[in-house]
């Protein structure tokens, strides 16, 4: 099995005939954290949805590889079963379904044995008490609580590639510290992480291995943490 868990090669993607990604290439190796940043509308979330196989995102050119296997034509659930998990920027509301029941059903569908105790432990790891088990999924949850619950799913599913879309949005500083720390722990266990964010302070806590910058649907820079200093001083336009 190749060390490069996720590889995106020269990907061009359109939505309703409008190009949203242009010749994008990047890779995320096992145990690596890659930060993906850029201004609004730069294509970050479009890339996440394309990797997950969202049907609205049409791949015109290029391919997506997982451990060397071309998964470009696979359906979303097939990619999920192969070990890719996305924590959404805005998780959907699903009314009337208790959190504990939802997590048990989702783990069962993925062939994962998870008891209520396992689920409760995952909730505790992200700072949610056991009373969340009986609450309806996302109903009345704050933005931060939704993100914590999404991350708990990642802990239960044990993905090979974890895509975090604006994980730090809606979290207070303690939540950011907790979940960036958990992200590093997952990477330490061999999970490849693509961390999408606008939050430079969160990225400094995260300490990604590499920072990839997108603008106008394409990659404009790849560097280490030092590129954050340039962005803080000059903005994204200072990179082009």
Automatic annotation (TrEMBL):
<dbReference type="InterPro" id="IPR027417">
    <property type="entry name" value="P-loop_NTPase"/>
</dbReference>
<dbReference type="InterPro" id="IPR017871">
    <property type="entry name" value="ABC_transporter-like_CS"/>
</dbReference>
<dbReference type="InterPro" id="IPR003593">
    <property type="entry name" value="AAA+_ATPase"/>
</dbReference>
<dbReference type="InterPro" id="IPR010230">
    <property type="entry name" value="FeS-cluster_ATPase_SufC"/>
</dbReference>
<feature type="domain" description="ABC transporter">
    <location>
        <begin position="6"/>
        <end position="240"/>
    </location>
</feature>
<dbReference type="InterPro" id="IPR003439">
    <property type="entry name" value="ABC_transporter-like_ATP-bd"/>
</dbReference>
<dbReference type="GO" id="GO:0005524">
    <property type="term" value="F:ATP binding"/>
</dbReference>
<keyword id="KW-0067">ATP-binding</keyword>
<dbReference type="GO" id="GO:0016887">
    <property type="term" value="F:ATP hydrolysis activity"/>
</dbReference>
<dbReference type="Pfam" id="PF00005">
    <property type="entry name" value="ABC_tran"/>
</dbReference>
<protein>
    <recommendedName>
        <fullName>ABC transporter domain-containing protein</fullName>
    </recommendedName>
</protein>
<keyword id="KW-0547">Nucleotide-binding</keyword>
């Amino acid at each position: 099995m190749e060390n490069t868990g996720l590889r995106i090669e020269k990907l061009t993607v359109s939505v309703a005939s409008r190009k949203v990604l242009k010749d994008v290439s990047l890779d995320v190796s096992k145990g690596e954290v890659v930060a993906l940043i850029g201004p609004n509308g730069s294509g970050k979330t479009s890339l996440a949805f394309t990797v997950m196989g969202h049907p609205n995102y049409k791949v015109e050119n290029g391919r997506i590889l997982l451990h060397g296997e071309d998964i470009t034509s696979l359906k979303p659930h097939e990619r999920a079963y192969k070990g890719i998990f996305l924590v959404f920027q805005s998780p959907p509301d699903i009314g009337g379904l208790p959190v504990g029941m939802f997590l048990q059903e989702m783990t069962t569908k993925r062939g994962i044995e998870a008891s209520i105790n396992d689920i409760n432990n995952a909730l505790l790891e992200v700072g949610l008490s056991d009373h969340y088990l009986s609450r309806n999924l996302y109903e009345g949850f704050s933005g931060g609580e939704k993100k914590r619950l999404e991350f708990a799913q990642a802990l239960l599913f044990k993905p090979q590639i974890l895509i975090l879309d604006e994980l730090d949005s809606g979290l207070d500083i303690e939540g950011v510290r907790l979940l960036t720390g958990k992200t590093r722990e997952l990477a330490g266990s061999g999970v490849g992480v693509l961390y999408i964010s606008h939050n430079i302070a969160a990225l400094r806590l995260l300490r990604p291995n590499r920072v990839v910058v997108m603008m106008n649907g394409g990659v404009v820079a790849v560097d280490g943490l030092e590129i954050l200093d340039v962005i803080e001083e000059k903005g994204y336009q200072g990179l082009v």
